[in-house]
Amino acid sequence: MLMQYIDYYEILGIPKSATEKEIKQAYRKLARKHHPDLHQGDAKAKAEEQFKLINEAYEVLGDADKRSKYDKLGMNWKAGDEVNFDPSGRGGTYSYSYQQPDDFDLNGFGFSDFFSQFFGQDFARARQGGAQKHQPASKGEDIDAQISLSVNELINGVEKELYLSVPNICASCRGERFTQRGICRACGGTGTTEDTKTVKVTIPSGLHPGATLRLKGLGGKGYGEGPAGDLYLHINAAPASDWQITGSDLETELLIYPDQAVLGDKMQVPTPHGQVQLKLQPGVHNGQRLRLKNKGLPKNDGSSGDLYFKIRIDIPKEQSEEEKALYGRIQELRQQTHK
Ligand SMILES: [Zn+2]
After folding, report:
1. Whole-number Å distance between alpha carbons of 139 and 194
2. CA of 162 to the centre of ligand 1 (A)
3. Distance (Å, rounded) from C-alpha 305 to C-alpha 154?
4. Average of per-residue pLDDT across 247-276
């Protein structure tokens, strides 16, 4: 039997190497875009066609078994080629026997002849089995989100409100994507409905940039008695104005006066860990970096980076007459000693 080969990867706009997650994302995006209910007139018919193809592509690529079966076939054919299902024909190694259960109408599901011939039996069996099987519960979807934290928040922890877009398992098809009548209209065949929610999360202290927090139960709702999915929160360092971040080291400028540079001093300085007392040695130079060990950002091995103060020597804006006189005296001395 000759069939037009359909390139499901091309339909979803993804490479052959796409991961399960990438396939799902591409599928959902396209299914929402081409949902027939969002279009009218001529565009509606076109969208309907596209929508069916997208669903068919996902039915195959979204299922590991079907995908590998399809990939084996796809090694020998390109889109538009005539595919020969006869084992004696081109390709030669693939044998196929197809028998559709009597009471299952695949056309109603909107699948192509290519699909029906290639997967029809598997699909029909799975759907029939699925419909009979009592599925009281399934776990909700896990979701991913990103958050940028300031240096202070990373080191000390913080409470944050997150605005999340959450895929909840579709109540009409129980996440199966199909009802008895075909592609589920309630979820557009995606198996989930997108809802938004705001949650308050407590972010613990000492997180390193690049860390991922797993927050149980904050993902999509489960079906029936099934538990909700989890939220994987990826932690980033927000670009900081007061601290320069290099790896897990922090650096900031420390402004001191000439007398402090010459004579040394003790000063209170703010850090993300609170105020610390810094001891300036006499004769500190402009541009010199003072290190506070382990006061930088947390690292993923549990240790911490270092914190640096870079010295900048400046003079006070206003000088009193007395100060000017004393600087005058210093100048005289310098001119005598360093001629
Ligand atoms: Zn549904």
Report:
1. 16
2. 26
3. 13
4. 93
Minimal CA–CA distance to 191: which of 180, 176, 201, 204?
176
* CA–CA separation, 311 and 255 (whole Å): 6
Cα 224 to ligand 1 centre (Å): 14
> Ligand 1 mean position to 193 CA, how many Å?
8
How close is the Cα of 59 to the center of ligand 1, in Å?
Answer: 14
Domains of the chain (ranges, CATH numbers): 2-133 (1.10.287.110), 138-237 (2.60.260.20), 244-337 (2.60.260.20)
- How far, in Å, from the CA of 135 to the mean position of ligand 1? 15
Whether the per-residue pLDDT at 318 is higher than 60: the answer is yes
Cα 30 to ligand 1 centre (Å): 16
Burial (CB count <10 Å: 0-12, 13-18, 19+), residue 152: middle
Q: Which residue's structure tokens are 């339909």?
A: 11
The amino acid sitting at 24 is K
- Say what the pTM is: 0.66
